[in-house]
Amino acid sequence: MNFLKKFSPFYNLALFYIVVSFVLRIVLIFHPITQTNFVFLDTMKIFFIGLVSDAFVFVIASAFLYLYLIFISNSKYYKPWGYIIFGFFIALLLYIASGKTILNEYGGALPKIGMIFVGLKTLLFGLLLFLPKHRDKIRFWLFTFVMFLYVVLILQNGISEYFFWNEFGVKYNFIAVNYLVYTNEVIGNIMESYPVIPLFSALFLIAGIVTYFIVKRTRNYIDEIPTFTEKLKISGIYLALLGVSLLAVPYLAKKENSQNVFTNELQANGMYRFYLAFMNSELDYFKFYKTLPEKEAFALLGKQIPSISGVTTLRTIKSDVPETPKNVVLITIESYSADFMKAYGDNQNITPFLDDLASKSLLFTNLYAVGNRTVRGLEAVTLCFPPTAGESVVKRKDNKNKFSTGSIFKQKGYNVKYLYGGDAFFDNMEDFFIGNGYDIVDKKTFTPEEITFANIWGVCDEDMANKAIKTMNAEAKEGKPFFNHWMTVSNHRPFTYPNDKIDIPGDSKSREGGVKYTDYALRKFFDMASKQPWFKNTVFVILADHCASSAGKTELPADKYRIPAMIYSPGFIQPHKYTNLMSQIDVMPTLFGLLNFNYQSKFYGQDVLKADYKPRALIATYQDLGLIKDNVLTIISPKQAVKQFQLTLKPDQKTAPEFQIYYDQVPLKTERTDLVNETISYYQTASDILKKKNYQKVE
């Protein structure tokens, strides 16, 4: 047999992987979310450097294939070695079954995975050992299965990258890593959002056909098993390629340096991006970002936040008039972009209730979400704290007993609750809120009679509205004020909800339907609330957790962070528009100002209605950290990178000036060093305070 043919399993699968990657790039280039034009150099980088990177990534990913192929032999089944090896597998299986292994120390599904893997290895080795007449057939079908598995994984990865791009407009990132943790919700979401049976039927059919042709071209490897000398040569060549690949992949990733973000994303290898996200789930600010001397950073922060001094944000907030301890209901709406509302230019009439409520409220027209995930929005309104690099505080281990809005309300004698229609275990919400003194009302607390409709994310918003009213009625009877934070769920893929509620069918799975049904459920909630005795003594705060999409031509597209927010309390809050720039972290400190609360504060968020407030907004991803101020967006990123963009409004004659959200983001020709340092001061001090555990609640 020609020695080159002994590599046929490798190069046939590699060719298939590169073809799939090539087709995927073409599809993503023409995807509607890819809102850009590519110059010739961009196209060359996407396809040439991208495909070379893919080839090296495949070499690394084929390590398991190499190990499988290199250990195919007949000699290991000869006496006594076959029985010795089989006995070893039996002993290992019994050891894992004993429950005293390192796998059990890690817990979770790991012991079961280990048991299944070793069990299958033992079974297959036993069949090959004790059925020598059928050894060739068993080996052929096992070889076919391994080829099929690789083909399925290659196709599945391509499909996953497509749907991830469809949702976020990027290759795999930190979000994809998070999805692995919450497989139940994510798999359920996929099952309800997409035609899974036809999709996977087609996947397995195509995989079967491709596997047939690959096996036909590569089965000579098992028909004429390489000799020991040939395996040494194969190992030498593969290990050399593996070494080159381990160096080449990160080197080529550094070539993702185009001004066009989409070029960088399309050039990148998805699997390597996933690996990077997995390894860097927590980003050390002081290792990856530009820094200032500690005292200088806090001194700069002190110029932005009145009354702070030293290396802390602790200060006294004091009102000149008596406190007004009203009930507070905070409603964070899932994935609710500003441009869903009529005032911001939408003409679909999908938010009729909130459009009307906004006209009766203190409406913040120029407010930006801090991030693009629910946990970032929850962090912003609960901790009133900048979005630090890496994971949200909500999902970190050190997330308890923080200085929070809940801790302020607790000091004032309030009952404090978090209401969520799904399982609060998701995204670590339960651990975070219980750890910060909140009681939880989630799907687990519902009786079967209280649920009229549910999907993978939880009960519909209408059911949660009914539960919220019951909860608040019970709290009102206790004679104490209450603070309830309700996080909605219905405006989330798969966008399913009860039929016959709005003019968009509940099974149409449309974003517009999800938005309009949430609006409908909120109308029902306020209709019920207005009839309760506690209504006149209650302030309602309504805002989004984040926008519906965060994809754009730049790292931080400003319009993808603009969210609506309002405070409604008839007879207490006079309707008007606040048009100055502000952040999601400012909403609750502003509310505390309206309630005339006196308290010790560590918040980075500020009362925007005070005369000393300086307009600015903080927006971020898990690694790009931004500050909007003076119509300039400053972004600091890992590797001490800094970018600045001039924000130039793109006028829309049909929309009032205060509601216009679209800007051209043009790179600044001359750096605004003052804004760079101010950006650093916000994020560096926030990271420092968390690292030193200086954001704990004030006792």
Automatic annotation (TrEMBL):
Organism name: Flavobacterium aquicola
Coiled coil: none
The organism's place on the tree of life at top rank: Bacteria
Record keywords: Cell membrane, Manganese, Membrane, Metal-binding, Transferase, Transmembrane, Transmembrane helix
GO MF annotation list: metal ion binding; transferase activity
Active site: T374
Residues given in the record as substrate binding sites: H492
Protein name: Phosphoglycerol transferase MdoB-like AlkP superfamily enzyme
Chief location: membrane
Cellular location(s): Cell membrane
Membrane-spanning segments: 12-34, 46-69, 81-97, 109-131, 138-159, 196-215, 236-253
Binding-site residues for Mn(2+), renumbered to this chain: E334, T374, D545, H546
